[in-house]
Design brief:
Blueprint: E1 2-7, H1 10-23, E2 28-33, H2 44-50, E3 57-58, H3 66-81, E4 88-92, H4 96-107, E5 112-117, H5 127-138, E6 141-144, H6 147-155, E7 162-164, H7 168-177, H8 186-191, E8 197-200, H9 204-207, H10 210-218, E9 227-230, H11 233-242, E10 250-253, H12 258-267, E11 271-273, H13 276-285, E12 289-291, H14 299-303, E13 307-309, H15 314-322, H16 340-348, H17 351-367
Parallel strand pairs: 1-2, 1-4, 2-3, 4-5, 5-6, 6-7, 8-9, 8-11, 9-10, 11-12, 12-13
Helix pairs in contact: 1-7, 1-16, 3-4, 4-5
């Protein structure tokens, strides 16, 4: 089987690391990097650390507005995928790369597989929510992390081609944590010698809004411990544009690789983030998480008591900065058993998928 895999952002890099290895045992994978995360530390370092094969194609679409980015991805993806003898296209999560890849696959009459389907924040002001809803409804196969996602899809009328496979990010996490801890850059190694909190902020709802970004940063003024802040390139750009300075308690860091980030997450007292991937990694690590969003799609971590929504309210965030979050006594296996990649592979090699691929080939042949 010839599989086109589309990636463009951090969580997708992590997921593809494990799934590509499983796919490439018996199938051909064409890996396309859209370039959505164009910074070396956000992209190339992840490929190196996770042992991901270099992309067959890198479209270089990064550093522009959301609408322009999606439009350019559509144009470039259509041009490179159409000549390929592809059987299906795999997209992941909720990024602009996910949306563009899904649209192009269906325009080209190729079967579409959505990994990490069925997640919902129920906030249609978020680009990520629009992306995930759209792709779920386009996909021929929706592969979910848990049964709750299956129920959400069913509520929207999506019942065929839905399978619970677990979370490939958990597969990758278990593999990474079994490796020796990486050498941390000197400033980071020094900073983690004492108790610290960890902060990440990159979503457009926060960093493109000066008021929200300022409110989040203000919450850490006079914090009782250092707050380590690996700054996403988009966030750094906005800080400069808005003329915002970081409180003295925030320790600004360059973007970190995957392994270094996992080390910081494991050692942190509390993780403050607006990242869906980091919310899950906090849960994997057993570290309390405060989500800097009004809603989250990872409601299972909130229900389990490990994740707390604070939005961009300075006062709400301060309560967690100054307070102590006592971890719940239990941390149930919300994301599978670490075998999601093999479960996904089993679905892709099933009679159901072979039937979908064969039918799509007939339709394409009839349209020529």
């Amino acid at each position: 089987m010839n599989v086109v895999s589309i990636v463009g952002a951090r969580p997708e890099f992590v997921q593809v690391a494990v799934l590509s290895r499983a796919l490439r045992r018996d199938h051909t994978e064409i890996l396309i990097h859209t370039g959505q995360h164009y910074d070396v530390a956000m992209s190339e370092r992840f490929f190196e650390q996770l042992g991901i094969a270099q992309p067959d194609l890198d479209l270089g679409v990064g550093g522009i507005s959301t609408s322009a980015q999606v439009g350019e991805m559509l144009r470039k993806l259509a041009g490179v995928i159409e000549p390929l003898d592809a059987d299906l296209v795999i997209v992941r999560g909720d990024t602009n790369s996910t949306l563009a890849g899904g649209l192009v696959a269906k325009h080209l009459l190729l079967p579409l597989v959505h990994v990490e389907a069925g997640m919902r924040s129920h906030d249609r002001t978020m680009p990520e929510e629009i992306n995930r809803v759209t792709v779920d409804h386009l996909a021929d196969l929706n592969l979910t992390t848990d049964a709750a996602a299956v129920a959400r899809l069913a509520a929207e009328g999506i019942t065929g081609g839905v399978h619970v496979c677990g979370d490939v990010m958990y597969d990758a996490y278990l593999e990474a944590r079994a490796r020796p801890e990486p050498m941390l850059p000197a400033p980071v190694a020094e900073a983690v010698r004492t108790p610290f909190d960890l902060l990440t902020v990159h979503r457009s709802e926060n960093v493109d809004d000066r008021v929200r970004l300022r409110a989040i940063l203000d919450a850490f003024a006079a914090a009782p411990r250092p707050v380590l802040f690996p700054i996403h390139p988009r966030t750094r750009l906005r800080l400069g544009e808005f003329g915002l300075e970081l409180p003295a308690e925030i320790v600004a860091l360059e973007p970190l690789g995957y392994l270094e980030m996992l080390t910081l997450e494991a050692r942190a007292r509390t993780i403050f983030t607006d990242s869906g991937g980091v919310q899950r990694e906090a849960y994997f690590a057993g570290v309390p998480c405060v989500t800097l969003r009004d809603r989250t799609e990872w409601t299972n971590t909130v229900d389990a008591g490990w994740n707390h929504l604070a939005g961009a309210s300075t006062e709400a965030i301060r309560q967690y900065v100054y307070g102590t979050l006592a971890p719940p006594p239990d941390r149930p296996p919300l994301f599978g058993d670490g075998d999601a990649a093999e479960r996904i592979l089993a679905v892709l090699e099933s009679d159901e998928t072979r039937g979908i691929v064969a039918e799509a080939r007939k339709v394409r042949a009839a349209r020529r």
